[in-house]
Automatic annotation (TrEMBL):
This is FAD/NAD(P)-binding domain-protein. It comes from the Eukaryota. It comes from Diplogelasinospora grovesii. Gene3D superfamilies: 1.10.405.20, FAD/NAD(P)-binding domain (3.50.50.60). Pfam families: NAD_binding_8.
Length: 428
């Protein structure tokens, strides 16, 4: 779950006394646009704006660009696996973006199927389960989705909002007989919390055009199998325009300019810009375990609606193609401390071992742990009906500040680049 916390918003909006401090010339950066966040949308915006002749400064708190895009390289085999974003959709915007960095894209060929087992992670025991053919349900879902083309463009919702979009997804599934595709939707909707109680609006935003077109005609991936290479090239090109390892201390905005004080590894800097583009939100997680790497293990709820797993819990464990390295995804409808997640993962793996379902080491090793929370912006139905989404839309342009990123669109990089491209064309 992702929420634009009041605390974060007030921090960004706050006028700290530090802002009135005088910054020497060498600590003052003057740019057309200051971009907060260097993930999928922040990096795209920086490159797109520079290409159109604007000067930029990107403030990114981590030591790299890419956000949810994270490629893990096994130190032993040197093989790479995507621990975050894997595929994108065919689209002039995304294809031009990769071509811009001379990164060839190819059709995604899913790895050869591993042995798939379904396990109830609360007991660690195998469940006899055969997924149904989702084709008819997909067609029915596609027909519904086609009614709402506005979902591809941020949260520009009609008034009144169509009733079906406000139904809990579980009710929508029953209404249109979509049960056969729920498990697949839940796999793509990992991180979005309790799928069946989510308003259908959110499910359709995150399982929309990209998912349907991708399943029909195939997704795209870099030929190199390394999505991070785009961000490495972008960082090299941005040079000192990317302030990595940096965080915002304070922001002052008026109708003419913005002033952002940033804590960087080499001290505080003042960024003076004409416009501010806010793209910040989530991060991510995977783990290395002494778990057999030739299984795809799906957590299946026993006696739960649509057999979806109980959360917080493991969604699935999947092979990476790298010996002795698996990818494990865990979700929770509420934020949890990392230690609790690690402990619960280990307890789940112990149950699988004790139930004799899989041979798992007593002390699996975690190669990489990433917390992607907070992830999805979701508000209950009544504020959506009451016009909640008119507020963020009206914010665009107020005090020269603009907003993009998954919170304002969907967790779909291609849709995000299309949305951001449009936003930049209109306002920058
Ligand atoms: C495991 C996983 C797999 C995914 N797979 C796919 C996929 O296959 N295809 C697809 O289209 N989408 C996929 N997604 C979704 C996609 O990655 C996201 O929708 C996209 O990255 C969102 O872009 P963003 O710019 O909003 O956020 P991000 O890419 O997360 O970028 C936000 C950036 O802001 C930084 N930041 C946060 N707070 C601050 C702060 N206060 N100051 C400075 N910087 C800050 C973060 O460090 C981060 O770099 C996946 C997501 C996950 C988690």
């Amino acid at each position: 779950m992702f929420s634009l916390s009041a605390q974060r918003a007030s921090k960004l909006g706050a006028t700290s006394t530090l802002n009135s401090r005088r910054f020497p010339h060498e600590d003052t950066i003057v740019r057309d646009v200051c971009i907060i966040g260097g993930g999928a949308t922040g990096t795209f915006s920086a490159i797109r704006l520079r290409d159109s002749g604007k000067t930029v400064a990107v403030v990114e708190r981590s030591s790299r660009l890419g956000g949810h895009t994270l490629t893990y390289q096994d130190p032993v085999s040197a093989l790479k696996t995507e621990a975050g974003l894997v595929v994108i959709r065919r689209s002039p915007v995304s294809e031009k973006y990769f071509a811009r960095f001379s990164i060839p894209l190819i059709k995604f060929e899913p790895p050869p199927p591993a042995a798939t087992i379904f396990v109830d992670f609360t007991t660690g025991k195998k469940v006899d389960f055969s997924p149904r053919d989702p084709s008819d349900a997909f067609a029915a879902y596609g027909a519904q989705l086609a009614k709402y083309p506005f979902l591809d463009n941020g949260f520009d919702l009609p008034d009144p909002i169509p009733e079906d979009l406000l139904l809990p997804f579980g009710h929508f599934v029953k209404k249109y007989d979509l049960s056969a595709m729920v498990l697949l939707v839940s796999k793509l909707g990992q991180g979005l919390g309790d799928l069946l109680s989510q308003p259908t609006l959110y499910v359709m935003k995150n399982f929309g055009k990209t998912a349907l077109e991708g399943f029909a005609t195939g997704f795209l991936v870099p030929e190199s199998g390394d999505n991070s290479s785009l961000y490495e090239k972008a960082l090299a090109e941005l040079g000192s325009d990317a302030l990595i390892g940096s965080s915002v201390v304070s922001v002052r905005r008026d109708n003419h300019s913005v002033r952002v004080v940033v804590q960087t590894p080499s001290g505080q800097k003042l960024i003076k810009a004409k416009k501010l583009l806010i793209t910040i939100p989530p991060r991510w997680r995977t783990s290395k375990a002494g778990v057999p790497d030739n299984y795809h293990v799906t957590n299946l709820g026993v006696g739960t609606p649509e057999s979806l797993p109980k959360l917080p819990g493991i969604y699935e464990i999947s092979p990476t193609g790298i010996p002795d390295l698996v990818n494990l995804k865990y979700g929770s409808p509420v934020p949890l401390p990392d230690e609790d997640v690690r402990a619960d993962v280990m307890a789940c793996l112990s149950r699988l071992r004790e139930a004799g379902t899989l041979q798992i080491n007593e002390k699996p090793e975690i190669a990489l742990f990433e917390n992607h929370g907070p992830f999805g912006l979701a508000v209950p139905v009544s504020p959506i009906e009451g016009g909640f989404y008119k507020q963020p839309n009206k914010l665009n342009g107020h005090r020269n500040t603009f907003y993009t990123g998954a919170a304002f669109q969907a967790h779909d990089a291609t849709l995000l680049w299309e949305y951001t491209d449009d936003l930049l064309r209109k306002h920058f």
